[in-house]
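Here comes a specimen:
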Amino acid sequence: MSSESTEVWTGWYRDRGGAEAIVITVDGRQVSTRIRGVSYTGESFGALRAADGSGEALTGCVLEWDLPLPVVLDGATEQATLGCLLTLGERVDLSLTLHHGGAAYESGIAGGDFEEALDRVRRQLPEGAAFGRRPLQAA
């Protein structure tokens, strides 16, 4: 995908104050979302900061979202869903789970590196299987 492509995913934001539905936009260079009236942007999920000039980091919360991620197996494209759970606090913890063919393939905790976590999932797929596309690099 080119850096001009944009993906939009829906998900949830949770903290001690409760939960709310959010929209996450990834354009290949930047991730952005709006939470309780404040826009956050960053080069990655772990680097989300308020875009209001304060530059306050998004922390003390959990972001959760799903995205379609087709799997190609034996030349056939099969639908799959990648569940993403990101905890932003003193540490950044990311966990990915691919639901495909009745199985769940988990990344375990990756320190916020989306590509590393995605590669952990990919290595568990059946031999010859590959992702039908790559989620945008900014994530």
Notes: Residues 27 and 45 are 12 Å apart (CA to CA).
